[in-house]
Amino acid sequence: MYILVTYDVQTSNPQGAKRLRKVARICKNYGQRVQNSVFECLVTPAQMVALEQELTSCIDHTSDSLRVYQLGSNYQRNIKMIGKETSFDIEGELLV
Fold first, then answer.
1. Among the four residues 13, 31, 38, 52, which has the most C-beta atoms within 10 Å?
2. Can you tell me the mean pLDDT for 81-88?
C-alpha cells in the first residue's frame, strides 16, 4: 500500500530535536522524503504496523503530531505535482 507520512515534532528543546531526527530516520527506512516532514512510502500491511509502532513509541504524544494517509492502489492518479520534482517513481527500476 502507498502511504504518506507527515509529522510535526516540537523542537523547542534538545529532546525534541533528537525526536525529530529519530522520526525522520524511521521514515527514511520505509520510504522517500518528498518535503521536510513528509515521506512517501510503499509498504506491506505488516510494514505499516511496524512503522506505526516505531513512530508511536518515539514521539511525545502531548506535543508532537503524526499523520498517516493511505493513498490506495491508484495513488499515481491522485498525486498532483507542481514545481520542482523531489522524488522518484517508488515502483520503478532503480539503477545503482
1. 31
2. 62
